[in-house]
Specification:
Length: 639
C-alpha cells in the first residue's frame, strides 16, 4: 500500500533536558536564525542527532519504566510508580498517568512526548544537508538513523494507542488550523508506513556499529530486528482481524480503524522478517551469550557444576554491558551513579554495610512469575509429573543435591525447589542463595531476619521474592556510583528466536525450524529441548503437546514470558495475544512477609488487585487536552 505523506505543526515544543553523558539541545522553532546556526557545523548538528535519540523509552528508570506495566512485579504502596497505578485501574482521560502521546514527568528522568521526538527527527532530516563540514554519505547515514527512530516512535505510539496520525514531515509555521488537525490512520496504514520507513532507512545504515563511542546508534542489524518485531505485532490477534473488540471503531468516513478480517499471510511476513533479522545479526557476530569470564572466588570451586554455569549464563545475558547477545542497547541513560536507576529498588540491602544508599529493596516479583518458570525438566510446574504441584506451597527440607541454589538442610517452599536455572538466576527467595554485592548471601527473608522486613520501614519485598535479573552481580549498594551500569536491552537475539518460532508456528504449525529456534533459548537456559521435554512420558503430563499448533503456541508464549521477563515485554505480549483479562484482572499474591514463624510466613496472601477493563484498557487514553487541540482526533473506545 502506498502511504501518503502526513504533515503536522506542533503548537509548542519543549524538550526535557536530561542529565547524561550527552547534552541534549532544545530545538528552537523552525525557520529561525538559531536553527540555521544549529545546522551550520557537524559539531552543533550532533546535538540535534542526540536529541532525536533522547526520546527512547527510559525503562532503566524506576519511575518511568514500562517494566512495571503488567503482573510481573509488586511494590509497597508508598513507593508506587505510576505504572503500578495504571495496572490498578487509576488511569484517567483528564490526567493520564503514563503515556508516549503527551509524555510524562517522573522522579529522576521522565519521558518526552514521542510526537516531539518525531518532530525533532523531521527537523534533522530537513536541515542536515545545510551542514558544510560533512560529506553526503555521512549526512545520508544520519538521515537514515533518525528516519528509523521516527518509524520506531510511530510504532511505540501505535502499540500503546492503536491507530494514530502519520507524521512524515513538519508543516510550516503558517499552516492553517485545518491542515494541522490530522486524522488517525487505520492500523494497517500505520504498520505499512512504519515498515516502509524502516526499509528505506536500511539502505543508508552501516552494517553494524561497533565503535565504543557510537554503541547504541542505529545500524542495519537493529533496523531489521525491530522490523521483525513490528511485523510480529501486525500479525498478532490484537491488530489482525480484531472484529471482536473494534467492529464499531470507525473514522468519520465509516472506515474501520482495525481490519475486520484475519490475514494469515501476515504471520508469514513476520516469519520471513525474523529470519532475515537473525541471519543479519549472526553474520555481524551477534550470538547467544555464555559466561566466559573467570568466576569470582566464592564460586571458583563450584564452577565445575553445570547448574552454576547455567545461572551465570542467564544472569549476565542481561547485565553484562554490550555482550554478544545484545542487538540494540539504549546507551543514552547513564545508570551508574543515578539514584533513579531500576537497579536500586531491585537491589537488596546488606544489613552489615555502613551505608545502603543505592539499595532500596522494594521491587519484588509476584508469585505468578515465580510459578511461571519451568521445573528442572523444562516443563511448566503443572505439566511435570515429578513436581508436586498440588502441594507446591508446602514446606520441604532442602536436600544436598539442591545446595547450588538453596541452603542445604534448611526449609523452604516446595515451589522454590527443583526449578530451572533461570528461576534461580532471576529470583531470590527465603533460604535461597543470592550472588550480590560481590559476594554470596544465604537469604533469610522472614520478618525480622537478616533480609526480611524490618519494622517501621517501607523498604521491603512485598511478595517475599527478590529481583536478581536486572541487578548486575557486582553492583554494590552502599553508594550510587558503585552500580555497574549496562545499556538497557532494547532487543536481544533471544527475542528474535522467539519471534521466529511464534511466527512460524502461527503460519504453518509446528516445524523443525520452530523447535530449533526455541531450543537456542532452552540450551542457554540449561533445560531439555522442546522435543525431549514434551515427549518424555516419565515427566510430561500432556505428552507431545508440542506437536499441535495450539499446544506449541502455549509453549512459545510461556517460553517468552520466562525468557523476556522483567524487560518491558509482558504488557505488550499479553495484550497483543488478547489475553489481558486472563492475566491482568486477578490479584497479585505473595508470601506473608510480615510473619516471623516459618508456618505463618509460608501462607499465600493477596497484596493488591490488578484491574483491566476490556476492551477499553487494551489501549491508553488520549488526554482531553490533546483532543481539545485537535477536534479531528477520535478517542479510543471506552475512554
Amino acid at each position: 500500500m502506498k502511504i501518503k505523506n502526513k504533515i503536522i505543526l506542533v503548537f509548542f515544543f519543549s524538550i526535557f533536558t536530561f542529565s547524561s553523558c550527552e547534552k541534549y539541545l532544545d530545538i528552537v522553532p523552525d525557520g529561525t536564525q538559531e536553527l540555521r546556526l544549529l545546522f551550520n557545523r557537524k559539531e552543533t548538528a550532533y546535538n540535534s542527532l542526540a536529541n532525536c535519540y533522547s526520546y527512547l523509552p527510559q525503562n532503566d528508570g524506576a519511575y518511568a519504566s514500562y517494566v512495571l506495566l503488567s503482573d510481573e512485579l509488586a511494590v509497597p504502596v508508598p513507593k508506587e510508580p505510576n505504572a503500578i497505578r495504571v495496572m490498578k485501574g487509576q488511569q484517567t482521560v483528564s490526567n493520564p498517568l503514563m503515556g508516549y502521546w503527551s509524555g510524562f514527568g517522573a522522579i529522576g528522568r521522565g519521558q518526552g512526548s514521542l510526537w516531539e521526538g518525531i518532530r525533532s527527527c523531521n527537523i534533522l532530516i530537513e536541515n542536515i544537508d545545510l551542514v558544510v563540514d560533512m560529506n553526503q554519505s555521512e549526512k545520508n547515514q544520519w538521515k537514515a538513523e533518525v528516519s528509523f527512530l521516527k518509524a520506531y516512535y510511530h510504532f511505540l505510539l501505535l502499540s500503546n494507542y492503536g491507530p494514530i496520525p502519520i507524521i512524515d514531515t513538519n508543516l510550516p509555521i503558517d499552516a492553517s488550523d485545518e491542515e494541522v488537525r490530522l486524522d488517525r490512520e487505520t492500523v494497517d496504514e500505520c504498520f505499512s508506513y512504519i515498515v516502509s520507513t524502516i526499509d528505506d532507512a536500511v539502505a543508508n545504515l552501516p552494517e553494524r556499529v561497533i565503535g565504543n563511542n557510537d554503541l547504541g546508534r542505529i545500524d542495519k542489524v537493529i533496523a531489521k530486528a525491530i522490523k521483525a518485531r513490528v511485523l510480529l505485532y501486525s500479525a498478532s490477534p490484537l491488530f489482525n482481524g480484531n472484529s471482536e473488540f473494534y467492529s464499531n471503531f470507525i473514522n468519520k468516513d465509516g472506515v474501520h480503524f482495525f481490519n475486520q478480517n484475519f490475514d494469515e499471510s501476515k504471520w508469514q511476513f513476520a516469519a520471513e522478517a525474523a529470519k532475515e533479522a537473525i541471519d543479519a545479526a549472526i553474520t555481524q557476530g551477534v550470538s547467544m551469550y555464555y559466561y566466559t569470564d573467570t568466576p569470582p572466588t566464592f564460586d571458583a570451586n563450584n564452577f565445575q557444576f553445570k547448574f552454576i554455569r547455567d545461572q551465570y549464563n542467564n544472569r549476565f545475558a542481561i547485565t553484562e554491558p554490550w555482550n554478544s547477545e545484545l542487538v540494540w542497547g539504549n546507551s543514552s541513560p547513564v545508570t551508574n551513579g543515578q539514584f533513579w536507576q531500576i537497579q536500586s529498588p531491585a537491589l537488596m540491602k546488606d544489613p552489615n554495610s555502613s551505608s545502603v544508599e543505592a539499595a532500596w529493596q522494594w521491587l519484588s516479583p509476584t508469585l505468578r512469575m515465580a510459578e511461571t518458570y519451568y521445573t528442572k525438566n523444562g516443563l511448566p510446574i503443572d505439566e511435570d509429573k515429578n513436581f508436586d504441584y498440588s502441594n507446591r506451597y508446602d514446606i520441604a527440607t532442602i536436600a544436598f543435591n539442591q545446595r547450588f541454589y538453596a541452603q542445604f538442610a534448611n526449609r523452604t517452599a516446595k515451589l522454590n525447589l527443583d526449578r530451572e536455572p533461570r528461576f534461580y538466576a532471576s529470583l531470590g527467595f527465603d533460604r535461597g542463595i543470592n550472588r550480590t554485592w560481590g559476594s554470596i548471601w544465604n537469604l533469610k527473608m522472614r520478618s525480622g531476619e537478616t533480609h526480611g522486613r524490618v519494622a517501621n520501614t517501607n523498604d521491603f519485598l512485598e511478595t517475599g521474592y527478590a529481583l536478581k535479573k536486572l541487578v548486575h552481580q557486582d553492583t554494590e549498594g552502599d553508594a550510587y556510583n558503585k552500580a555497574i551500569s549496562y545499556p538497557w536491552p532494547m532487543i536481544r537475539l533471544s527475542e528474535l528466536y522467539l519471534n521466529y518460532a511464534e511466527a512460524l508456528n502461527e503460519a504453518n504449525g509446528p516445524s523443525a525450524e520452530a523447535y530449533e529456534s526455541l531450543n537456542m533459548i532452552r540450551q542457554r537456559a540449561g533445560i531439555p529441548t522442546v522435543q525431549d521435554a514434551w515427549s518424555n512420558t516419565d515427566n510430561a503430563i500432556t505428552v507431545n503437546k508440542h506437536l499441535s499448533k495450539e499446544g506449541l503456541r502455549e509453549i512459545i508464549q510461556q517460553e517468552r514470558s520466562i525468557e523476556m521477563a522483567f524487560e518491558a515485554h509482558r504488557y505488550y505480549d499479553v495484550r497483543r495475544w488478547k489475553l489481558a483479562t486472563q492475566y491482568f484482572t486477578t490479584p497479585i499474591k505473595g508470601w506473608s512477609v510480615n510473619e516471623e514463624s516459618e508456618a505463618n510466613y509460608y501462607q499465600i496472601r493477596e497484596i493488591g488487585q490488578r484491574s483491566f477493563n476490556s476492551p477499553r484498557d487494551y489501549f491508553q487514553p488520549i488526554s482531553f487536552t490533546e483532543l481539545s487541540r485537535n477536534p479531528n482526533l477520535i478517542q479510543n473506545p471506552g475512554w
